[in-house]
Amino acid sequence: CEAENLMPATTSTRKVRVKVLGQRVLAKRIKELGDKIDGREVAKIHLLAANAAAKIIRAEAPRGPTGNLQRGVVTGVFKNRPRKKRAAFVLVDRRIAPHLHLIEFGTAERRHKSGKSVGRVKPNPFFARGRNKSRPVVKAILIAGWKQLFANAGIK
C-alpha cells in the first residue's frame, strides 16, 4: 500500500488516502484462470494457510487443566460456497471450549446465588493475538500457493 497526501492527525479529523497497488492485476489473473483450476486446489491452499494460523493460535492459548482451549481451535473449508470460491476458516469449536468468550474477553466479579464470590477473569485475548501473529505466515503461504497455481495454469 502506498499512502498519499498524509495530513497531521488532529483531534477532529484525519485524512488518509490509500492506494492499493496490484489488485487489478491479481483480479485479471484470477479471471484468466477460469476453468483452468479446480476449486479443490484453491481450497487446499486456503486450508494450508488456515492450519498454519491455527497452530500459532493454539500456541497462544492458555493451558488449562483440560487443554480444551487449545484442542478447540479447529480449521475447515466452507463447503456451501461455489467450488472456485472456497475459503477456509479457523475458529474455536464451542462444543469443545464453550468458555472461550470468558477467557478471551474476561469477566467482572461474579457471585453464586449463595453470595459466594468466584472472582473475576482478566481478559486474555489469545485468539486475537494469535491471529495477528499469524498474518505474515498466512500471507506468505497464500502468495506462494497462488503463484504455484498461476504457474501450473501457464499464466505469468
| Elements, N to C (H/E) | EEHHHEEHEEH
Using only CA atoms, what is the Rg? Answer: 21 Å
Fraction of residues in helix:
40-55%
Whole-number tally of structural domains: 1
% residues in beta strands: 15-25%
Tally of DSSP β-strands:
6
Shape: elongated
Q: How can the largest sheet be summarized? A: 2 strands, antiparallel
Protein name: HK97 gp10 family phage protein
Organism: marine sediment metagenome
Tell me what you see in this structure.
This protein is an alpha+beta fold and 156 residues long. It has one domain (37-153). 46% of the residues lie in helices and 17% in strands. The protein is built from five helices and six strands. The protein has helices at residues 23-33, 39-60, 68-71, 100-105, 126-153, and strands spanning 2-4, 17-19, 73-77, 88-92, 107-111, 117-121. A two-stranded antiparallel ribbon has the order 1-2. A hairpin with a 5-residue loop joins strand 5 and strand 6. Helix 2 (39-60) runs antiparallel to helix 5 (126-153). The longest helix has 28 residues, at 126-153. The radius of gyration is 21 Å and the shape is elongated. The protein starts with a strand and ends with a helix. 17% of the residues are buried. It comes from marine sediment metagenome. This is HK97 gp10 family phage protein.
